[in-house]
């Protein structure tokens, strides 16, 4: 276990455990009922487990994958006791998450060959997009990086005002224009300012409307194209923010945005206070896009880099 892994565990593991508490309680309550009176993993247990996973917002496709894997193990090992089900589920879910997440990320890191490192943030209104940007800015600044924010969600005055509040709170500069301004113009000015200031990280907010896919795609494409006039390969990440507490609705949002633009990573927020944390597993598996950050509390420190080992450990602890 590396030094950074120990730091992660000691400082953040308790918050993660607490944030996933409702999800765990709900899941294992259902799982206990599913295997009641059974000593071996048979067809009835698998049918019940399928229902448990789907009702825990893991998603139908991902659930069927997990069930198939367990059926293969039953066929291979001939006998699996229900007391082993927890361990088996843990291993199979870790395996699924391994396909899209490295599992070793423990810090808010900036790629060494990207300066400024440009993150364009997308997502519908109400998912915690602006709050995630503010917390990201805080975490990057805390790690010693110089951060600039861009308020390119110009369709709502509230979005600009909220980002300004976060910029003031974190103590980082913000580039903004009036409501109704061209979002691409704001993005352009933000990157020019960041280059002038020799900034390490730029985080660009974008409109939170889930409108016509073609319009959304054209708008985000324009923002990207204009940014590339300043930083040739920007944005380096397109971060889609999803509200984990909405369960299956988060799947629909992921489907819409991944169809409209090239999403490179995900942030799943509001996992605390919900029993729908299983959505992280399903979304990560179905969209093959790495979950980079998770929100497990309201505090400014409660946005964490997603670490699959820590997540699965907390889920099954």
UniProtKB/TrEMBL annotation:
One of its GO terms (molecular function) is signal recognition particle binding. The gene is ftsY. Signal peptide: none annotated. It catalyses: GTP + H2O = GDP + phosphate + H(+). Its EC number is 3.6.5.4. Keywords: Cell membrane, Cytoplasm, GTP-binding, Hydrolase, Membrane, Nucleotide-binding, Receptor. Part of the signal recognition particle protein translocation system, which is composed of SRP and FtsY. It is found in: Cell membrane; Cytoplasm. Its main location: membrane. GO terms for biological process: SRP-dependent cotranslational protein targeting to membrane. Pfam families: SRP54, SRP54_N. Residues 290-303 form the SRP54-type proteins GTP-binding domain. NCBIfam families: ftsY. HAMAP family: FtsY. GTP binds at residues 123-130, 205-209, 269-272. One of its GO terms (cellular component) is cytoplasm. This is Signal recognition particle receptor FtsY. It is a peripheral membrane protein. Belongs to the GTP-binding SRP family. FtsY subfamily. Involved in targeting and insertion of nascent membrane proteins into the cytoplasmic membrane. Acts as a receptor for the complex formed by the signal recognition particle (SRP) and the ribosome-nascent chain (RNC). PROSITE patterns: SRP54 (PS00300).
């Amino acid at each position: 276990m590396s030094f950074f892994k120990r730091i992660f565990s000691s400082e953040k593991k308790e918050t993660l455990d607490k944030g996933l508490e409702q999800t765990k309680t709900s899941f294992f309550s259902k799982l206990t009922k599913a295997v009641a009176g059974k000593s071996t993993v048979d067809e009835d247990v698998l049918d019940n487990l399928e229902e448990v996973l789907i009702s825990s917002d893991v998603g139908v496709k991902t659930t069927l994958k997990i069930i198939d894997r367990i059926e293969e193990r039953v066929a291979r090992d001939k006998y699996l006791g229900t007391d082993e089900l927890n361990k088996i589920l843990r291993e199979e879910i870790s395996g699924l998450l391994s396909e899209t997440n490295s599992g070793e990320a423990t810090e808010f890191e900036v790629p060494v060959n990207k300066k400024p490192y440009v993150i364009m943030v997308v997502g519908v209104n109400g998912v915690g997009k602006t709050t995630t940007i503010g917390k990201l800015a805080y975490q990057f600044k805390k790690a010693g990086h110089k951060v600039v924010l861009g308020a390119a969600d110009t369709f709502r005055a509230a979005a600009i005002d909220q980002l300004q509040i976060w910029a003031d709170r974190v103590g980082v500069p913000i580039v903004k224009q009036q409501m109704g301004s061209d979002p691409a113009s704001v993005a352009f000015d933000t990157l020019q300012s960041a280059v002038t200031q020799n900034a390490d990280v730029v985080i660009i907010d974008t409109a939170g409307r889930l409108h016509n896919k073609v319009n959304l795609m054209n708008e985000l494409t324009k923002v990207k194209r204009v940014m590339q006039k300043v930083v040739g390969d920007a944005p380096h990440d397109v971060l889609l923010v999803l509200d984990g507490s909405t369960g299956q609705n988060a799947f629909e949002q992921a489907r819409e945005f991944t169809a409209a633009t090239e999403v490179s990573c995900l942030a799943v927020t509001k996992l605390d206070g919900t029993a729908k944390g299983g959505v992280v597993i399903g979304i990560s598996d179905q969209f093959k896009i790495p979950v980079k950050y998770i929100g497990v509390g309201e505090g400014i420190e409660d946005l964490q880099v997603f670490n699959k080992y820590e997540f699965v450990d907390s889920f099954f602890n």
